TrEMBL record:
Domain of life from the UniProt record: Bacteria
Alphabetical list of SMART domains matching this protein: ParB (SM00470)
PANTHER family xrefs: CHROMOSOME-PARTITIONING PROTEIN PARB-RELATED
Name listed for the protein in its UniProt record: Nucleoid occlusion protein
Entry coiled-coil feature ranges: none
Gene (UniProt): noc_1
Pfam families reported for this sequence: ParB_N
Domain ParB-like N-terminal: 26-119
GO cellular component, one term: chromosome
Example of a GO biological process term: chromosome segregation
Length: 345
């Protein structure tokens, strides 16, 4: 898989702008530096880093951005800042001021992009951290696009390329980030729920995730099989909505006002009524008979079922209904006989 390259994103003008601005190194008191709330990387297990800084000093600058209040927000170096803060609290006052690269907002986006891509290859990341990387990359790329930077490809493919994963994995991470409940996200972050199970859980409605979480707390674990079973059970619980049908309405009486009442009943039951007689009412002559038969064939062909109102036995059965029933029979349409007594037939 080709590796993501930030230079592909930079137009010539933006390249020159960044080169022209350069950067400043400044010693800043750690009390004036606040960790970025968006940082999602693990900052535990820093004892070796503390020992290294204590012996050799800080070997790599922190990267910060100045805030409106005159303080600084940390962009890169959260583990280093935590190690130095602990060392200062243990009495190493000489480490209180640290060298920082101070960037403006334009540089900030590019730097964070570079750091995320670098971390994806140089650090062993948890599935939770990979998910947060993908989410943050999406936000940064969207921000650059809004700033007028032309992106060389589809967003999801660019993120996949940057993190050396497949676009499908990016989509799964996006689903987890957007849809997984906060309770399960905590378990996912703590690596008590794996990525595959988290993805399956993210496909459950909120209420079902709550139920799954209660079950998880009781059992102490949850598997993909458990989640899939919850999904299957949910399908059985859901009431099945009756599909809206196209109903050809056939009346044995051939009376227009009766036909109107039958059509109304079909509509009340949530279906779409079809009837040639209603459409051609008022048309007379041989041409009308031919048109009627042709329209019957067309409409009954479209219909899911033919509903017959009134009795089809006896000499009073309308000729038109017999035509319709013959066509329905020839087209092998399901015929449903409704009770005529309901309408005074």
């Amino acid at each position: 898989m080709a590796k993501f390259n930030l230079t592909d994103l930079l137009s010539e003008s933006s390249k020159k702008e960044v080169e022209k601005e350069g950067f400043r190194i400044k010693d800043i008191d750690i009390e004036d530096i606040a960790p970025d709330e968006r940082n999602f990387y693990d900052t535990s297990d820093i004892e070796e880093l503390k020992a290294s800084i204590e012996m050799f000093g800080l070997q790599q600058n922190l990267v910060v951005q100045r805030t409106e209040e005159g303080k600084y927000t940390l962009i890169s170096g959260h583990r280093r800042l935590k190690a130095i803060t602990e060392l200062v609290s243990e009495g190493h006052i000489e480490l209180r001021k640290v060298p920082c690269k101070v960037e403006d907002q334009t540089e900030d986006k590019w730097t964070e992009l570079q750091l995320i891509v670098a971390n994806s290859t140089t650090r062993e990341l948890s599935d939770y951290e990979k998910m947060k990387q993908a989410t943050r990359l999406k936000e940064l790329l969207a921000g650059l696009k809004k700033d007028g930077v032309k992106l060389p490809g589809r967003m999801r493919e660019m993120i996949a390329d940057a993190l050396d994963v497949s676009p499908t994995q990016v989509a799964r991470m996006d689903s987890i980030d957007k849809n997984l409940s906060d309770d399960f996200k905590e378990e996912f972050q703590a690596e008590k729920v794996n990525a595959s199970t988290a993805y399956e859980l993210s496909g459950l409605p909120e209420e079902k995730q709550k139920e799954a979480y209660e079950e998880y707390k009781d059992k102490g674990s949850i598997s993909i099989k458990d989640v899939k079973q919850i999904k299957e059970d949910s399908k059985l619980e859901e009431p099945k909505e009756e599909k809206q049908k196209k109903i050809y309405v056939c009346s044995s009486e051939g009376k227009r006002f009766k036909m109107a009442s039958y059509v109304e009943e079909v509509v009340k039951e949530g279906h779409i009524p079809l009837n040639a007689q209603s459409i051609l009412y008022g048309v007379k002559g041989i041409e009308a008979e031919e048109a009627y038969r042709a329209l019957c064939i067309e409409l009954i062909s479209l219909a899911d079922e033919v509903w017959v109102y009134g009795s089809i036995m006896g000499k009073d059965v309308a000729m038109m209904s017999m035509v319709e029933l013959n066509i329905a029979s020839n087209l092998r349409k399901k015929t449903v006989y409704r009770k005529g007594e309901k309408h005074g037939c």
